[in-house]
Fold this protein.
Amino acid sequence: MRKITLSKAVNEALVEEMRRDENVFIMGEDVAEAGTPFKVLSGLVEEFGTDRVIDTPISEPGFMGIGVGAAMTGMRPVVDLMFGDFIFLIMDQLCNQAAKTHYMSGGKLNVPLVLRTNMGATRRSAAQHSQSLHAIVAHIPGLKIAMPSSAYEAKGLLKTAIRDDNPVVIFEDKLMYQDSAEVPEEEYTIPFGEACVKREGTDITLIGTSSMVQVCEKAAEMLQAEGISAEVIDPRTIVPLDEKTLVASAKKTGRVIVVDEGHQSFGITSEIASRINEKAFYYLDAPTTRIGAMDVPIPFSPALEDITVPTPERVFEQAKKLVSGELIDAA
Amino acid sequence: MRHDIIMPALGMAQDTGTLLAWHKSEGEAVTQGETLFEVETDKTTMEVEAPASGFLVGISASDGDEVPVGQVIAIISDSADAPTPKPESAAAPQGSDETSGEDTLPPGKPIIMPVLGMSQDTGVLVGWSKELGDTVHQDDILFEVETDKSVVEVPAGIKGYLVARLAAAGDDVPTGETIAIISDEPSKQMVNRAYSTSAAPAEQSVKPTDEEKPKPVAEPAARVDQPQRKQTVTAPGGKVLASPKLKRMAHQAGYDLSLLAATDLPQPYHARDFEALKHASESAGKRAVGSPSIGAIHTLSARLSGLEFEAFLGWAADHLDSSAGDHVIAAFAGASLADKAVVRVDRRGESTTYSTQQQLSQTVESDDKPDLILHDLRGTFISSAEFPPDRAPVIAIVGSEGDVTLTLTCMDDQLTGKDAAVLLNNFAGRVADPLRHIF
């Protein structure tokens, strides 16, 4: 099968959906002429013109509000938020308007809006351009959250998001845009709420989101060298969450580590770990543990930044502790 | 001020200690409480702390040396370059410290305050059993010690003459401190005084690094109320730490997780320990059948004629204003157990509790917790009954006047097999022949 980059996969998904449905349009900062700082949207404005690939002023609340209104009135906007960190600027448009309009209108209005944005550290972008803020929007009912872990997921999930009648936020890892993966030529979509077992194993389950799937896969390789069989699961969407697959794996292996790049406290890892404890408790042979980013602003210092976010080594060490039956003391 | 550092006496039977390692070197500054060196005896390894701050000088024993107890092996001095008179190397009596102006102790073997409990730091000297100058034999009681747990008589352990008593009745003395000296020869230079830290043979605080402290004397164990058995290591609060998965597996298989505590597997236990649990459960099952343990159940039966009892009840109903025989049977059972007892009688679904005494008229209803439970099934169709152990020993009474069967069930910690037999026999005797109750 051919291999393409995640950037190209996103581009293909948008092209295919814009060709399929004339109501789909793109809006955001530097999306047309510049094709975004990550060159994800290169060539789109040439095919679809400036009416459907719209460069906006530098006003996130403004164009997000326009996007919500367009969605309410029948369009299918794909709003491009240049950095996930800017999500704090559009909280009212996203969380009070987009997330709640269907509910507040008694079902008369839909908001089929896609917010494409990014996450992820280790790009030396410092504390205000390196955050992974998906947990903040995952907390709000009415929003679906997709987190692609490769080019294949990026394309399939984005196409599903565009066709969904509800607001969806897609977090792409900004360090993965140039990562290649096998992506079929033919049309496909990935349904929401279906986790993907990336690797089967029997001793421990590693649940990772976005780029943390790669981290878990590397840790699984290291564990295999030690004779420990690790299962790696990618939930693919955080909302809705495929609890069934995660719990089944937890029951099978009896040990779980949840890895996510958001800050560890009050984050995605806590939510998933908690559901596993609730539903698989009597099958657990070790405490379900979490590995997230440290609870500090992401440092600019490369040496510090690299150890702030989860690494394969940390996952590996933690997995060995759990499998060996070491008492995990919360102290 | 100069402090002699001696090889401490960590046990009564200890003659020498092996200096494992110095933690400080010659001339080095030391602070009170810092570890100076480690000693190994035949029982344990201990860290010895500096009794005072100063400079460690005049080290006369090296790592690995076996040094007689009481021998000075270094000095803590005020300055690093102070003249260091070579410490005397003879096994001199401990604590002879000329510079301190204390009275000189006669030579002999030191007797220390023994360690009688795991957590005991000091012992109170209750009193001396020997006078100064007395001849003592090994097995003679030399003194009595009170700990927070018990009062223990401590034998001398060695024979000779009691030439020094370094503590008085009522003194609270740290364990390991010398409180007497027994000499081979009678001495004119005898010492009798109360305990004081400055008069102690050495101001060294000894901190055990091992759970097991030395035995106080050669064979005191039999006299000690608190046995010095090594305690089983369990989780805080006696809780067994195990994974939810293993707990579920054990529950489904009907195994008791606490059996794993007897194995040397570390806690928390996990699913992988299930095989060991299975093994422990199976062997525990066999043991229970083979020999009675603490949790054993005793079941005893007695068969007898109830004719006399029925006749007695008839008489009692006429003379003692008793509508039912319950209180009579309760009194018979209670008296079989003790002079006074509380007996609950369950009869036809009703429970009545009696406080019983020998005299029938003083057996009255009570709300106390029963010492004995009677299930009176006489007059029913039930021909045989045996109840499981309850909070008190249980006696089932079945049959009719011609043929009554009494079946006693109890846990071993409620009544031993012997006491159970006595109880049932007494009770059966009273029922078979009620006149026995009176005599």
About this structure: Residues 6-20 of chain A form the longest helix (15 residues). The CA atoms of residues 67 and 77 of chain A lie 6 Å apart.
